[in-house]
């Protein structure tokens, strides 16, 4: 079976192999939408987009819906719990059904790896990745880049430390591919049980002390729902060894920022006091999700 590129004109599956120019053009278009005074436009009036979330979400789902409504799109929200998936219908048959009804694009989040790629080979309408197993989460990484670019002016030359559950993180992977393309240096920090060895050739694993010297300290959520037993002894032990505590944050550079894709396990990977600390960009990241997703939807439907 032939594989579909992560970034074809039809689908938007990931950032691996996507050029700096393509990423920059999405960030620039997001800036246009962020500063557009119209809350709602008729840019994509008459288009139907379905949000197909087969895994839970708050930020991604609602920011896609806000983005769609700001663009004048008619939104069809699909909930697996209330659908014929409960009768055993497959993900492919579900998406194919909505395609047959005439939707123009699908925003899709899936738990198992590989299914999105298979769908993309068969489905003709554009599919936008809203979180694909531990493979990629490209719109999260784009909003992260948008936040870094606004903070520092440019991403080229930045050092970004990604700390935590790399093994299960689609956010880490999309950030890695995009940040390399944009000229940043990426380094990982994780306990041995949460490392992804296949990524070590692209970003070195460093100590926490080294990771704290970066311009961006990006903490990841410990993804308890994806863990087999034995990866995590206790939340307290994780915080002591790999959490960004107030004391550790006090040793970051004066200009450096804290990022986290959220949801946050407070007092596990990040101390409660740091979530809304002056160094933290967590809620700024969330706000940037709307213009970024406007730019991505517009691209898919244009
Ligand atoms: N960051 C993120 O993807 O959050 P949700 O799971 O709430 O969408």
From TrEMBL:
Q: Does the keyword Transferase apply?
A: yes
> Which organism does this sequence originate in?
Paenibacillus pectinilyticus
Which PANTHER family does its entry note? ASPARTATE CARBAMOYLTRANSFERASE, ORNITHINE CARBAMOYLTRANSFERASE, MITOCHONDRIAL
Q: What is this protein called?
A: Aspartate carbamoyltransferase
Q: What pathway, per the record?
A: Pyrimidine metabolism; UMP biosynthesis via de novo pathway; (S)-dihydroorotate from bicarbonate: step 2/3
Write out the similarity annotation: Belongs to the aspartate/ornithine carbamoyltransferase superfamily. ATCase family.
Sites where the protein binds L-aspartate: 87, 170, 221
User: Which Gene3D superfamilies does this entry report, sorted A to Z?
Assistant: Aspartate/ornithine carbamoyltransferase
Q: What does this protein do?
A: Catalyzes the condensation of carbamoyl phosphate and aspartate to form carbamoyl aspartate and inorganic phosphate, the committed step in the de novo pyrimidine nucleotide biosynthesis pathway.
Q: Which reaction does it catalyse?
A: carbamoyl phosphate + L-aspartate = N-carbamoyl-L-aspartate + phosphate + H(+)
The alphabetical list of record keywords is: Pyrimidine biosynthesis, Transferase
* Biological processes per GO annotation: 'de novo' pyrimidine nucleobase biosynthetic process; 'de novo' UMP biosynthetic process; amino acid metabolic process
List of residues binding carbamoyl phosphate: 59-60, 109, 137, 140, 262-263
What Pfam families has UniProt attached to this entry? OTCace, OTCace_N
The EC designation for this entry is: 2.1.3.2
Q: Span of the secretion signal?
A: none
């Amino acid at each position: 079976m032939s594989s579909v590129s992560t970034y074809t004109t039809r689908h938007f599956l990931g950032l691996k192999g996507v050029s700096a120019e393509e990423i920059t053009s999405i960030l620039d278009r997001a800036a246009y939408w962020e500063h557009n005074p119209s809350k709602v436009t008729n840019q994509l009036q008459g288009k139907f987009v379905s949000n197909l979330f087969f895994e839970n979400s708050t930020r991604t789902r609602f920011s896609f819906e806000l983005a769609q409504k700001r663009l004048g799109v008619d939104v069809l929200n699909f909930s697996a719990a209330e659908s014929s998936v409960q009768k055993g219908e497959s993900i492919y048959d579900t998406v194919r059904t909505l395609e047959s009804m005439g939707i123009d694009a699908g925003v899709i989040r899936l738990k198992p790896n590989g299914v999105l790629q298979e769908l993309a080979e068969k489905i003709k309408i554009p599919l936008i990745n809203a979180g694909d197993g531990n493979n990629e989460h490209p719109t999260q990484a784009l909003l992260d880049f948008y936040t870094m670019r606004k903070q520092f002016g440019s991403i080229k030359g930045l050092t970004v430390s990604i700390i935590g559950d790399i093994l299960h993180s689609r956010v880490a992977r999309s950030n890695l591919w995009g940040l390399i393309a944009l000229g940043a240096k990426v380094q990982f920090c994780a306990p041995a049980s949460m490392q992804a060895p296949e990524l070590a050739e692209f970003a070195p694993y460093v100590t926490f002390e080294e990771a704290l010297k970066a311009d961006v300290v990006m903490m990841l959520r410990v993804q308890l729902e994806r863990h087999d037993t034995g990866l995590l002894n206790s939340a307290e032990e994780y915080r002591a060894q790999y959490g960004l505590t107030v004391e550790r944050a006090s040793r970051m550079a004066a200009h450096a920022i804290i990022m986290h894709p959220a949801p946050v396990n407070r007092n596990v990977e990040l101390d409660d006091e740091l979530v809304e600390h002056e160094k933290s960009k967590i809620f700024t990241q969330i706000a940037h999700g709307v213009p970024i997703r406007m730019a991505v939807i517009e691209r898919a439907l244009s």
